[in-house]
Amino acid sequence: GIFGSEGVDLRVRVEPPFWRARWFTTSILVLITLLVSGAVHHNGLLRAEIRQRREAEQRRDAAEARLREATRAEALGLVHELSADEAGLDARIDDLVAALLEGGPRAQAAAKSLIVAVTPEPIGAAVVEDTARRIAGLRATPEAKEGLGAFLDKRPASWVGAA
């Protein structure tokens, strides 16, 4: 070719591929958000239905006063653990009692109260706020200070062995 001394302006605009376009990214984010929220909602509905069915079966069994074999009772949530023999059961009870006696009495009462309060509720802002309020109220109590001090000093708390 022939080259000239004068330059030529040529404007070229390259469009990004569609998957890098803002509309596509936004659409994907909206789709993912909808899928996740739908899955969470569906999971919550399934859990509620399972809980309702289990509670209905438990009520029916209690009303009929039927005895169930241990594995069936465990499957229904009527029993948390099974033991092969009486000695194993006694050992497990001793372990559970010892663990319970290590906890602060007021803290255990508050934990039970919290469980009763939040169990029927979906986890949302109100439940989180209530839980935080309860914990904050307990954190400054003498029992909490003693428990934390005992933990940091690697010693038993004052209430351990007192019961």
Structure description:
This protein has 163 residues and is mostly helical. 66% of the residues lie in helices and 0% in strands. The protein has helices spanning 22-64, 70-75, 86-102, 105-118, 125-139, 142-153. α4 (105-118) packs antiparallel against α5. It is elongated and about 105 Å long. The relative contact order is 0.05. The mean pLDDT is 84.
> What is the approximate shape?
elongated
Overall mean pLDDT score? 84
Helix content: 55-70%
Strand content: under 5%
Continuous helix count: 6
Topology:
Elements: H1 22-64, H2 70-75, H3 86-102, H4 105-118, H5 125-139, H6 142-153
Helix pairs in contact: 4-5
Short characterization:
The chain is mostly helical and 163 residues long. It has helices spanning 22-64, 70-75, 86-102, 105-118, 125-139, 142-153. The mean pLDDT is 84.
What would the keywords be for this entry?
mainly alpha; 163 residues; 0% strand
